[in-house]
Amino acid sequence: MQNIFVIGAGRASTALIEYLLNHADKENWKINVGDSSYDLAHQRVKNHPYGKAIKFDVNDKNQREYEIGNADLVVSFLPPFMHTIVAKECLKSRCHLVTASYLTVEMQELDPKVKKADLIFLNEMGLDPGIDHMNSIQLITKIKNEGGKIISFKSYGSGLISPDSRQNPWKYKFTWSPMNVVLAGQNGAKYLEDNQLKIVPYNRIFNDPKKITIPGYGDFEAYPNRDSLIYREKYDLNDVPNFFRATLRKPGYSEAWDQLIKLGLTDNSYTINNSEDLTYRNWVISYLPEVNGKKPEKALADFLEIPADGKLMQKLLWLGILSNDKIPLKDATPAMILLHLLEDRWKMNIHDTDLVILRTEIKYELNRKLKKIVSTMTCEGKDNHHTAMSKTVGLPAAIGAKLILNKKINEHGVIIPIHKDIYEPVLKELKKFKIDFVEKEIEVKGSGAA
Amino acid sequence: MQNIFVIGAGRASTALIEYLLNHADKENWKINVGDSSYDLAHQRVKNHPYGKAIKFDVNDKNQREYEIGNADLVVSFLPPFMHTIVAKECLKSRCHLVTASYLTVEMQELDPKVKKADLIFLNEMGLDPGIDHMNSIQLITKIKNEGGKIISFKSYGSGLISPDSRQNPWKYKFTWSPMNVVLAGQNGAKYLEDNQLKIVPYNRIFNDPKKITIPGYGDFEAYPNRDSLIYREKYDLNDVPNFFRATLRKPGYSEAWDQLIKLGLTDNSYTINNSEDLTYRNWVISYLPEVNGKKPEKALADFLEIPADGKLMQKLLWLGILSNDKIPLKDATPAMILLHLLEDRWKMNIHDTDLVILRTEIKYELNRKLKKIVSTMTCEGKDNHHTAMSKTVGLPAAIGAKLILNKKINEHGVIIPIHKDIYEPVLKELKKFKIDFVEKEIEVKGSGAA
Question: Which of A358, B296, B310, B352 has the lowest CB atom count within 10 Å?
Answer without folding.
Answer: B310
